[in-house]
Structure to design on (635 residues):
């Protein structure tokens, strides 16, 4: 059973098809880089896989379960455009909150652990609204990884990160992959993403123009996939 | 005559509210936009007929008792019914994304229908002290008013379906 | 048990966030006091009429001031896309909903309990005579306001004109509950027990609470995920 399976998914906004017949799979331990122009449907696809909206046709399976089932939600971590942490709470309070919501056995301990791993232990009692942008991003990453999800869905995670945050995220992603977790990541930062990716999918106007393993050509020339399979190819 | 028109419009809008709620539930179950168009058409026409009925009832009151508003239980219930359903149309205008619009509207429609009987009872209790309430009569005027309502709703429904498919074509054309 | 813990976690989070910023509660309280002040200009507190309108006035104050708090309920999740994280968490939509209801309930009730003595002072009404019953009506009426306000807060969270749509949807639907609460409060706040005739209104208020809590719980998943 694959970690993430998207089977014949069509997603409409009213009558307008934002996703057309998407068929793709990510096995456990794979890292799928989802690339495409703005408006191609990357965010829509990720959010549909995460269960934020429903596809009108087709199925999405996370380890064989529907995305909205509690078990699937427990195994999934999502990092979107927003940091999804509360400005009025401290870093520690935020992580403890999500620890409790995810039913972790010791939310406080997990929170401290992840504050350490993202370098935020010293500011754990600071309110998020006083954090710098990089600190906020690192906290967002901590929140997404906190419950040790088996599937990580990341929407342009490297955009708007400072160098320190990028380094933290890359390290965490490598560790996750080494531990057999699955990553689906949409991105514009081809270089960072292609280094980690095992597979690549190119989305063009809601359709998959390419879906396959990452090749050496892609790593050497990040624009390769666009040139070969994208528009104007 | 005016009073019986008012009664007829009340019954017709009540039927419209029921159809709208059932249609809304069916939409939420099947996600078929046909039910959304139906709910919209029926609610809109129901509101128009209800408004006309309230005006007729008010005029009737003026002609008989020289008062525009008699705080009669039936008339007041009709007015509150109007106020409960009017936000349905406002909400639809406020939500842009079609699926979200249909789902939100469906929820409001269901809430509104549950509220109607409670609200009617409350108004009856409230106003029963002042004026002996006349029951809302069932007369022959129901048939033409209901027929008119059904016909208008059908026309509105077809118009909505046409608009949606035109929208879809336009968007797909813009794509290519 | 787990469900209740989840409800408590959400409620605690909302309360902690609100008590830190105090945005909603300050606005709500200021609004309530202002309405009470404005109305005291129109009415002569000696008159018998004052007794008759007291229930109505109080619940207008509570409903309008309460809406300011209820609007924040889901709106507070919008900055930073926190709503996404809450929906993604493996808690049932009903737990999220009830948690927020409980938090809003406490906040709205707090404003009401501060407004009551102010009302008593401005309008020279001795309101403590039937306090246990009055408190019960406060609880029931506030729960009605909270349930309807919170579900529609969730419904309108992402739309334009949210601040306009929330009251437009809430008040008409809330009418039977408001009417019941107003009638019952009028006697109680003046120290009179509920007249026998009016017990029907109490049943209506309870019925309203039960029905709409059930309907909201049934529809919350649709409202959240669409």
């Amino acid at each position: 059973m694959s970690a993430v399976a998207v089977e014949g998914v069509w997603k409409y906004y009213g009558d307008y098809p934002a996703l057309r017949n998407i068929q793709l799979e990510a096995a456990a331990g794979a890292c799928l880089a989802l690339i495409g122009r703005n408006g191609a449907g990357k965010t829509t696809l990720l959010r549909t896989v995460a269960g934020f909206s429903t596809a009108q046709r087709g199925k999405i399976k996370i380890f064989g379960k529907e995305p909205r089932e509690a078990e699937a939600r427990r195994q999934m971590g999502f990092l979107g455009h927003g940091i999804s942490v509360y400005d009025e709470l401290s870093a520690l309070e935020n992580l403890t909150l999500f620890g409790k919501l995810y039913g972790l056995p010791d939310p406080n301990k997990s929170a401290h652990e992840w504050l350490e791993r993202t370098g935020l232990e010293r500011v754990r009692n600071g309110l998020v609204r006083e954090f710098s942008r990089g600190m906020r991003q690192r906290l967002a990453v901590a929140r997404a990884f906190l419950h040790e999800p088996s599937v990580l869905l990341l929407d342009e995670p490297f955009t708007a990160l400072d160098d320190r945050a990028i380094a933290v995220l890359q390290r965490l992603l490598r560790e996750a992959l080494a531990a057999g977790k699955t990553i689906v990541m949409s991105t514009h930062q081809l270089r960072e993403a292609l280094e980690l990716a095992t597979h690549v999918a190119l989305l063009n106007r809601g359709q998959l123009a390419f879906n396959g393993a990452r090749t050496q050509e892609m790593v050497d020339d990040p624009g390769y996939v666009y040139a070969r399979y994208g528009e104007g190819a | 005559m005016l009073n019986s028109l008012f009664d007829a419009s009340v019954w017709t809008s009540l039927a419209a509210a029921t159809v709208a709620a059932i249609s809304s539930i069916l939409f939420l179950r099947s996600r078929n936009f046909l039910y959304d168009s139906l709910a919209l058409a029926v609610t809109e026409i129901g509101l128009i007929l209800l408004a006309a009925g309230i005006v007729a009832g008010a005029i009737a009151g003026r002609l008989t008792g020289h008062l525009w508003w008699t705080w009669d239980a039936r008339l007041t219930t009709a007015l509150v019914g109007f106020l409960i359903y009017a936000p349905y149309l406002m909400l639809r205008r406020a939500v842009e994304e079609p699926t979200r619009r249909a789902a939100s509207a469906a929820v409001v429609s269901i809430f509104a229908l549950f509220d109607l009987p409670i609200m009617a009872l409350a108004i009856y209790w409230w106003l029963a002290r002042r004026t002996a309430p006349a029951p809302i009569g069932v007369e022959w005027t129901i048939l033409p008013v209901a027929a008119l309502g059904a016909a208008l709703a059908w026309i509105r429904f077809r118009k909505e379906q046409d608009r949606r498919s035109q929208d879809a074509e336009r968007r797909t054309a813009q794509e290519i | 048990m787990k469900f209740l813990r989840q409800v408590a976690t959400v409620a605690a989070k909302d309360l902690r966030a609100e008590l830190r910023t105090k945005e909603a509660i300050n606005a709500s309280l200021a609004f309530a006091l202002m309405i009470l002040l404005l109305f005291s200009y129109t009415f002569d507190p000696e008159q018998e009429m004052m007794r008759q309108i007291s229930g109505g006035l109080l619940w207008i104050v509570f409903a309008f001031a309460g809406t300011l708090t209820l609007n924040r309920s889901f709106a507070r999740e919008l900055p930073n896309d926190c709503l996404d994280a809450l929906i993604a968490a493996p808690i049932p939509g009903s737990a999220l909903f009830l948690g927020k209801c409980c938090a809003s309930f406490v906040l709205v009730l707090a404003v009401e309990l501060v407004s009551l003595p102010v009302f008593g002072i401005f309008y020279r009404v001795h309101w403590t005579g039937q306090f246990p019953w009055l408190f019960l009506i406060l609880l029931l009426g506030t729960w009605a306001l909270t349930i309807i306000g919170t579900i529609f807060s969730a419904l309108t969270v992402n739309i334009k004109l949210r601040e306009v749509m929330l009251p437009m949807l809430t008040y008409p639907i809330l009418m039977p509950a408001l009417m019941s609460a107003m009638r019952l409060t009028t006697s109680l706040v003046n120290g009179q027990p509920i007249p026998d005739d009016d017990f029907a209104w109490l049943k209506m208020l309870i019925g309203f609470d039960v029905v709409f809590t059930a309907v909201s719980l049934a529809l919350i998943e649709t409202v959240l995920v669409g």
